[in-house]
């Protein structure tokens, strides 16, 4: 898929399930449960044993957009793209990955946590700038502050997202909102798949409500 179309689809659904499981089977189960709950984007981190095989299997299954996370080197990016990853995510400012990904029409989201890193990512033409850890950086308040000097930057957030604050990120205009791996893994293991799917559906519902409210407010202001 064209990377610009991918970003548009992500902006429409917002949510990304980050998978950092201890085994490949656990990663597949978590990704499948997230998809059953209505999550359309899944990030498989390179810390998952057999991460490339997991990405390949999920891509083969279809129905969700699958990307690679914790990508720190060009070699990892190339291998992930080779098995079908549709987007590449880094926790740090790996600017050398942006051109590599774009040459293959793959979206690239480098990590940042300061204004200097944000502008560096923008100048490198990153598709999204991933704020990590978002909760420690200041959450939605930090995003709004950064939108002042950097109005054209599109953001992804990772860290501390929950049912109570997800609407704040939607209202702040964040394109990609990551549901953390530790939270997802603990939820599935502790509550079971049925409860997990129900909670994912709640996230989807709250995102839709926040989007609708934002549209209503925008219309009233005209």
What is the helix/strand order? HEHEHEHEHEEHEHHEHEHH
Would you count the extended β strands for me? 9
Helical coverage, percent range: 40-55%
Strand order of the largest sheet: 3-2-1-9-8-7-6
Coarse structural class: alpha/beta
Mean pLDDT over all positions: 96
Shape call: globular
Radius of gyration: 16 Å
Number of helices: 11
In terms of DSSP E residues, the strand content is 15-25%
Largest sheet: 7 strands, parallel
Key attributes of the depicted protein:
seven-stranded parallel sheet, 11 helices, 15% strand
In short:
By secondary structure, the protein is an alpha/beta fold.
Description:
- With 222 residues, the protein is α/β, with parallel strands linked by helices.
- It has eleven helices and nine strands.
- The strands form two sheets. A seven-stranded parallel β-sheet has the order 3-2-1-9-8-7-6. Strands 4-5 form a two-stranded parallel sheet.
- The longest helix has 29 residues.
- The chain is globular, with a radius of gyration of 16 Å.
- The mean pLDDT is 96.
What's the helix and strand layout?
Blueprint: H1 3-13, E1 15-19, H2 24-36, E2 41-45, H3 51-61, E3 65-69, H4 74-82, E4 87-89, H5 96-103, E5 107-109, E6 111-112, H6 115-123, E7 129-131, H7 134-137, H8 139-147, E8 155-158, H9 166-171, E9 176-179, H10 181-191, H11 193-221
Parallel strand pairs: 1-2, 1-9, 2-3, 4-5, 6-7, 7-8, 8-9
């Amino acid at each position: 898929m064209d990377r610009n179309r991918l970003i548009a689809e992500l902006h429409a659904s917002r949510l990304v399930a980050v998978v950092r499981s201890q085994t490949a089977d656990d990663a597949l189960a978590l990704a499948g449960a997230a998809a059953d709950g209505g999550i359309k984007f899944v990030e498989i981190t390179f810390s998952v044993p057999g991460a490339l095989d997991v990405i390949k299997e999920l891509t083969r299954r279809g129905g969700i957009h699958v990307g690679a996370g914790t990508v720190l080197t060009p070699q990892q990016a190339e291998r992930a793209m080779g098995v079908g990853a549709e987007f590449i995510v880094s926790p740090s400012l790996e600017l050398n990955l942006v051109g590599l990904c774009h040459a293959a029409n793959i979206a690239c989201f480098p990590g940042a946590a300061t204004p200097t890193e944000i502008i560096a990512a923008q100048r490198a033409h990153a598709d999204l700038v991933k704020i990590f850890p978002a909760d420690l950086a200041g959450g939605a308040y930090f995003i709004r502050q950064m939108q002042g000097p950097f109005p054209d930057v599109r953001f992804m957030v990772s860290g501390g997202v929950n049912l109570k604050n997800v609407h704040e990120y939607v209202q702040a205009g964040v394109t990609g909102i990551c549901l953390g791996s530790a939270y997802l893994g603990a939820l599935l293991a502790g509550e079971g798949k049925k409860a997990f799917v129900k909670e994912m559906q709640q996230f989807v519902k709250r995102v839709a409500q926040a989007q609708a409210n934002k549209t209503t407010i925008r219309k009233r202001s005209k």
